[in-house]
Amino acid sequence: MITGSEMAVIDENAAAMGVPRKQLMESSGHAVARAVREVADADASVRVVAGRGNNGGDAFVAVRFLDGFDVTTSLLGRPDTITTEIARENWAALADGEYRTDAVRDSAAFDLGDPDIVVDAMLGTGIRGDLREPERTAAAAINDSDATVVSVDVPSGLNAETGELAETAVEADRVVTFHDTKPGLDALDADVTVADIGIPAAAERFVERGDLMRLDDRDPGSHKGQNGEVLVIGGGPYAGAPALSAKAALRAGADLVRVACPMVVGRELQGFGEDLIVRPYQGKQLEPRQVGFLLQMARHHDAVVIGPGLGDAEETLEAVEGILSGYSGTAVVDADALARVPQVDTDADLICTPHQGEFAKMGGRVSDDWEERANFVERFAADLGQVVLVKGAYDVVSDGETTRVNRTGNAGMTVGGTGDVLAGITGALAATQDPLDAAAMAAYANGRAGDRAFEERNNGLVATDLHDEIPEVLWTDRGGEA
Ligand SMILES: NC(=O)C1=CN([C@@H]2O[C@H](COP(=O)(O)OP(=O)(O)OC[C@H]3O[C@@H](n4cnc5c(N)ncnc54)[C@H](O)[C@@H]3O)[C@@H](O)[C@H]2O)[C@@H](O)CC1
Ligand SMILES: [K+]
To answer: Could you tell me which residue ranges the YjeF C-terminal domain spans (predicted)?
Structure first.
């Protein structure tokens, strides 16, 4: 099962891999036509009722595969208000091909007639709220008729995020849904078929620009809060690492980032930038006596990043264990802090970000072959019950069930500090997103930022170069097409 918004992610990933949406629409339309042929007698009359989005576009394609049937296509609205380029092109192909079409201006002008079959292509995954006019009147007419109703993707009125059915929704006899079933279809009294529309498996496996669509606020099923507050617990032997993480978190959209660090590095850390809020504590390094204070602070943040620059002193690692075992929010665990993860008992949602060496120390099996590595990481994450992101030429991200692979990044990024940047981006995204998605998007964004920096600096790139590229990668450079 897949939600409408996750479908859009995969769809955009497919486009990034050279399979544009118009091609998928052609497959969708073909699948709809096949379903119509299955229920139609040779002399059946077919009425296509289409909306102005891509759900309608699928039906326009289907019409070209239904030659020989008596088909009339009604568009609910003016052709120039069709919302996407590809749906408009497929509508134009019907007009140019002398197919029988009409555009319904308003609900009063809608007359369903008495067709044998209705193709319901008014609304698919793009529905927002209850049916408006003229869709509402059209749905009532469809439900009143004796026609066999074939719905495209979902019955118009089903919300593919939540599975909720509007009161005025179309009652389908058959549903042809694409790629995978959608929430709510199971509960319908309809014959549902899933059509393979040729989306490459890689579009789900690899993290691509489509994954970043989750950062849009268009998702009707989600109620994301603000952009999140992140606490970085780091520093001691090193001051640069927590600063790199904190700045990356800010660039990745966090509203507020605080850094809790030992007094001795507080001033140095503050020197890295006026937008860092530094909360120093007594001492030269993290120790168990700070656990209470840090846990209290952590509770007021949406995500914690723990590890950058902490060092591996025994007291420090003990304190890490204390923090993780007392915390129940979302935490990104990096660097030396990773050592204590396998033995800690915690209610927190962890995102562990080891490189291969750290992963081996945690007890994970490493491999140079990315597919084998993906299997190892998946099993490790399943045993741990947490999200694990193992960095490499191909980063592997898994929660034990779903495993994603990221291909962005380059050899120039082996320079110190890029891992701290990744931890910071992950923290910012984890403040508002599901942990697995946050880790996958962060790996992609960090690598893309590195690729952009590499274009300018080649092997001379340094971790701070990535900071400036992050906003561009996350919000401007993601491409996308209607
Ligand atoms: N992977 C994918 O995402 C694919 C999607 N395809 C099709 O594209 C569909 C999604 O297309 P779109 O995103 O264009 O969205 P839709 O075509 O589902 O709906 C968008 C249109 O409906 C209007 N609308 C929204 N809510 C309404 C309401 N409550 N009452 C009346 N009108 C309303 C919008 O203003 C817009 O014109 C899928 O359901 C599927 O049929 C396929 O073409 C191929 C692949
Ligand atoms: K539909």
So the answer is: 207-477
Q: What gap in Å lies between CA 291 and CA 289, rounded to an integer? A: 6
Do 383 and 266 fall into the same domain? yes
Domain boundary among 176, 200, 224: 200
195, 238: one domain? no
Q: Give the pLDDT confidence of 286-343 residue by residue, as tens digits.
A: 999 999 999 999 999 999 999 999 999 999 999 999 999 999 999 999 999 999 999 9
Residue of minimum CA distance from atom 31 in ligand 1: 132
Minimal-distance CA residue to ligand 1 atom 3: 8
What is the pTM (predicted TM-score) of this model? 0.93
Annotated binding site for K(+): 55, 120, 156
Assembly ipTM: 0.97
Domain end (from 200, 226, 250): 200
Whether the Cβ atoms of residue 410 and residue 454 lie closer than 8 Å to each other: yes
* Residue 293, in any domain of the structure: yes
What's the rounded mean pLDDT across residues 3-19?
Answer: 96
Overall domain count for the chain: 2
Task: Specify the ligand 1 atom closest to the Cα of 482.
Answer: 14
Are 266 and 410 found together in one domain? yes
Task: Report H helices in 172-313.
Answer: 202-205, 240-251, 263-270, 291-298
Cβ–ligand 1 distance for 204 under 6 Å, the answer no
Whether 153 lines ligand 1, by a CB cut-off of 6 Å, is yes
Do you find a cis peptide bond into 200, omega within 30 degrees of 0?
Answer: no
* Atom 36 of ligand 1, nearest CA residue: 53
Separation of CA 176 and ligand 1 centre (Å): 15
At 420 the three-state DSSP class reads helix
Q: Are 174 and 321 in the same domain? A: no
Question: Measured in angstroms, how far is the CA atom of residue 93 from the centroid of ligand 1?
Answer: 19
Binding site as annotated, residues: 54-58, 120, 124-130, 153, 156, 241, 309, 355, 419-420
Would you say the CB of residue 246 lies under 6 angstroms from ligand 1? no
Q: Give the C-alpha separation, 199 to 203, whole Å.
A: 7
* Type and span of the H or E element at 449: helix 435-457
**Do 89 and 169 share a domain, yes or no?**
yes
Same domain, 167 and 312: no
> Residue 434 is encoded by which pair of tokens?
């599901």
- Give tens-digit pLDDT for 245-254: 999 999 999 9
In a domain, 268, yes or no: yes
Domain identity same for 253 and 184? no
- Of 49-58, 215-224, 332-341, 450-459, the least confident: 215-224
User: Is the CB of 128 within 6 Å of ligand 1?
Assistant: yes
Ligand 2 centroid to residue 207 C-alpha, Å: 29
Question: 52 C-alpha to center of ligand 2: Å?
Answer: 11
Cα(235)–Cα(334) distance, integer angstroms: 12
Distances (CA, A) of 4 to 129, 146, 206, 283, 371: 14, 30, 19, 51, 28
